[in-house]
Amino acid sequence: MVEVELRQISRKYESYRLKNEYAERMLLNSIAEKGIMEPLICTASLIDHYILLDGYKRLRCLFRLNVHIVPVHSLGSNEQDGIIELIRVSNSRSLQTLEQSGFVDELHNRFGMTVSDIAERLDVSPAWVSLRMGLIGEMSETVRMNIFSGRFPVRSYMYSLKPFTRVKGAEKQLIDRFVSSVSGKHLSTRDMDRLIYGYFRGGERFRKQIEDGHLGWTLKVLKDSTASLSQGFEMNAEERKIINDLEILQKYMVKVIRHFSEIISSGSPGMHGRAGSLLPASPFKKNALLLIKGILDFITPLKKQVGKFYDQ
After folding, report:
1. What is the count of structural domains for the chain?
2. Residue pLDDT, tens place only, 198-217
3. Phi first, then psi: what are they for 120, rounded to 5°?
């Protein structure tokens, strides 16, 4: 570890890192009271002296506090090795999937590394690399700016909004309009997910209300309409039971999709040996595969019967 002047540190990768205003305010107070407790993580550069990889919140706080000399820990012998080491360390630290994606793209596009090269150097599966490669490239500038500035929640993008980004043409303009309408409103993930559903599945009525800024009204209507479809008095007891079962099925289908999306994308402790690869002998994998086999056996008849009813 060495001490360097802030002017020697390049902020080249600042746009790759997600911002969190609340966390940054807390960090500012901590540094003002106790000083900087952790060094900035950089990689050495002949041109820029040092390139900052991890510690952008700390760097911005130090500028605000008018601190000029900072401790630096250097990763790798060059920029490429520094990025690789950062991603390896991030498996047990705070680098999120989208942030990893930016650095994986850098290794692929700038340094010419293949998927297998990156996987080998990071000690992860090729699927882990492929999942991250191009994630940021799929975003429009509006979406990227609002996510990385902390104005739009990452989780809502990854697990609720992202499926809509695969739609081509005019639909991408709708995504930009939606993100612009709801970003920076300090909404919970649950409320954001409701608004996503209302905007893309609720028709022009909900779309116009959201774009006009009537988010409170829209959320109230959505909550009231989805509280429980099985409570309708116009249905008999058997019909209400079927609707209740469909509500439960939909709820847990969404939960299972999110669980496995998170497992595949992040490498959860206790579920994985190396990131992206489940432990072959783990109790979790044995039990999960047993249940998944049974579920897969039911998917075809479920789609057949529900599809027949839907098409009538």
Report:
1. 3
2. 898 888 999 999 999 999 99
3. -65, -45
